[in-house]
From TrEMBL:
Protein name: 2OG-Fe(II) oxygenase
PROSITE patterns hit by this protein: FE2OG_OXY (PS51471)
Cofactor(s) required for function per UniProt: L-ascorbate
Record's keyword terms, sorted: Dioxygenase, Iron, Metal-binding, Oxidoreductase, Vitamin C
Gene Ontology biological process terms, A to Z: cellular response to hypoxia
A GO MF label: L-ascorbic acid binding
Organism the protein comes from: Acinetobacter tianfuensis
Listed SMART domains: P4Hc
Domain Fe2OG dioxygenase positions: 96-195
Length: 200
């Protein structure tokens, strides 16, 4: 997006190169720590509005057990993250001609025991999702707490990504991935960078 600079910790050349070579990229220490605190607080203060992600249009699936809240303009702190993702999208479009036009995003909360089984975010290439991003915003995470993002990269190598606080995982939406059962509350924003309106 015009006029929005990326945070210093985002090495765009590295991100573009990793996406090109492997289909995924990681940003560690994505934001100043005050931002993480503010976003955690915003997320936690809305937990009572989160809905069971497995229920869509009244239909219950057993593929996932997390809870989500779609972002709206009133979630001011979260919107700043979306602004940065929009700025990143401009770089992605310039480098790879992806035609990203917008972002759709939700908070996600995995309580202990919750998971998201193997899936793709754009299974039939029809929902417009091109790039998936997940920002982890719990205040603490230990690597033996489960909750890993397991991702088959574009070279068919399985990658394990721990949901460390202040980390962003970025990957092609067509790649197979899952969230291993978490042992502690795991908070995130999932955002999809996508071309115009989806054809459902
Ligand atoms: C998703 C997803 C991965 C993660 O929300 O579709 O796969 O690490 N999230 O939370
Ligand atoms: Mn996914």
């Amino acid at each position: 997006m015009d006029g929005v600079l990326l945070p210093k910790s985002w090495n765009v050349d590295q991100i573009l190169d990793d996406l090109d070579q492997h289909g995924f990229a990681i940003i560690n220490d994505a934001y100043p720590i005050d931002y993480l605190h503010a976003l955690s607080a915003e997320c936690l203060s809305h937990l009572n509005q989160f809905r069971n992600a497995a229920i869509q249009n009244g239909v219950i699936s057993n593929i996932r057990s997390d809870h989500i809240l779609w972002l709206n303009e009133e979630l001011n702190i979260a919107q700043q993250h979306i602004q940065y993702l929009n700025a990143l999208s401009a770089h992605l479009n310039q480098a790879f001609f992806l035609g990203i036009q917008e972002a759709e995003a939700h908070f996600a909360c995995y309580n202990a025991g919750e998971f998201y089984a193997l899936h793709r975010d754009n299974p039939q290439g029809k929902n417009g999702r091109i790039i998936s991003t997940v920002y982890y915003l719990h205040e603490e995470w230990q690597d033996d707490w489960g909750g890993q993002l397991r991702l088959q990269d574009k070279n068919d190598v399985w990658q394990i990504i721990h949901p460390r606080p202040n980390r962003i995982a970025i990957f092609q939406s067509d790649l197979l991935h899952e969230v291993i059962q978490a042992k502690h509350q795991r908070l995130s924003i999932t955002a999809w960078l996508r071309s115009g309106s989806p054809i459902w």
